[in-house]
What does this fold into?
Amino acid sequence: MDGLDGFIFSFFNLRVMVEYLPDIAAGFLLTVVLAVLVVISGLAAGLSLAVLRSFGVRPLNWLIIFTVDLFRALPSLVIIMLLFFGLPTAGISMSGFTATWLSLTLVLMSFSEEIFWAGITAVQKGQWEAARSTGLGYLGTLRLVVLPQAIRMTIPPLTNRAISITKGTALGSVVGVSEILGSAQSAMAFSSNPSPLTLGAIAYLILFVPMIGLGRWIEARFAWRR
Amino acid sequence: MADSIISARAIWKSFGELSVLKGIDLEVAEKELVFVIGPSGSGKSTLLRCLNRLEEPDSGSIRMDGTEILEKKVDINAVRRRIGMVFQSFNLYPHMSALGNVTLALRHVLGLPRDAAEARALAALERVGLADRVSHMPGQLSGGQQQRVAIARAIAMEPRVVLFDEPTSALDPELVGSVLQVMRDLRESGMTMVVVSHEMAFARAAADRVVFMADGEKLEEGPPASIFGNPRHERTQAFIRQIERH
Amino acid sequence: MEDFVDAFFNLDIIRRASPILWSGLLQTLLLAVTVVPVGAVGGVLLGLLTSSPNKTVRRSFALWTDFFRGVPPLVLLVFIYAGLPFAGLDTGAWGAVVIGFLLNTSAYYGEILRAGIESVPRGQVEAARSTGLTATKTMGLVVLPQAVRNVLPDLVSNTLEVVKLTSIASVVAMPELLFQARQAQNATYNASPIVAAAIAYFIMLWPVVRLISRLENKVLVARR
It folds into this structure.
């Protein structure tokens, strides 16, 4: 085989691709499920922590800030390893899927808490005063007046952060999750041909390139804030 | 005074080392328009913000309709629902339409159903001359229109008294008139108002009583004719002279 | 409680593992000081290309940037390390890591710089050109410095992500901190080495996290 044929045989081998397409498709589905779960739980946890932090209870806030800093400083893969290989030694074991989901949730929680918090503090003091002067309580003001404005301000950075963290779903392959990369790697091992990996890369592109476009569109759409 | 709505006594307030209010008394009677004037830094805005406890006084007593409102166990939200406030910088909620701004507290503080809240909000917006702007967002309104929405937001709650904190200071000169007109109409309808402002012509024409403050103290008070025409205190004279020169 | 300390903070095990953890930490630092500059230089180049006045150049490299932002870095790394040898291209672990990080990291730096360059008002270029500066000098002396200042929080934040990302090199058996910690954990059946590695990452990167928080808060306040 000469160069080009060899290249095509290795990376765009149609026979291998067709054979393993169902596996990769199943992996694609698992990646989507994992990503959606991470985004929902991560953002919900991050928002909850930011709201808790706004109550201004000193020791609680130190705990929140420390937690959030911790999961921003640790690499996602290190957290996954800790949960998947570390916890069982203390008698707590979880599946690779759970470990990956929990790790990425903790990371997104931390980044989004920081963003939500910045948004809450960026809402002008006069908004609080106006709402409180009409007799609205603290929680009502937060929910009806401050959070809607804070969230609007934080949509662009949140979108970009959520997209980049969901790309971490590929790390699940290291702890045996058959998401896209995991199923592509096993297919590569079975077929002794790297074409499934090409297929996997294409699957990621199909998933993430539109999301990157969405992120850019949202950034432009909300640019009036600046 | 039997018909006092607000009766503030010996209000002290300091920010760190700086004493801003030094034992101020203020009475506001039913249907009265009290004007508070004085040089900047005299503490007039702080006094106003103490009346609904946006600032917490260090000591003193504030009675509203005979009830002490500075006590810790007082439900301050219940008190505030009867005291409207209009701010220098409008503070409209930018994410809501004019109607949404007015209905928010009607629905979530008074607990009115949507229909009733909207009907009441529409009536308030009509009173400030903005019946045709109800679905505009604050960003689409002029400064004068925004301030009128803010007034509607305050009066829709049907408060006992409305506090105005320099309501025209952030406005372009040509927009001041429309806001003052709304305030004049409110006065005609018998609304009790406390106004901190530099609009001396308006004070002369509309106020029942003018309070002159300087350095955290009330130096003089009386009907506008005597405060402007025959000020007794030296600081008042200097202040009036300086204003007249402009 | 004692079990917990034994499982996660076993000082004896950490002491025994410390030589290989230490060598892993050095390898991680070496990786970081290699891939950050490589990615940054590539990023400046991509930032300039995606800001090019030439439509074709701009569009092609925007596509390039999106492509490499769309592929998770681990996928790229596995592709280079395990896939390319099938075509006779064996890069080894170091080669795979450097190429993978170049492609991935430069795309991120490039996108940030493009946004930064876009944020510099057109009048700046016109003012510089009107004084006789060449296009290259205008870019280097007037536009880029302002662009970098405008997106500094994003650049620092991306650098943090790149340093954290070096942990994926463990997947291709590069003996960096996480890899060594896993080896030690396998040998001792105890999680303490991974905990020790996590603590090392935290001590190393916490100051950067704090710095980013302060930079980002300033930006939101300035925006409002």
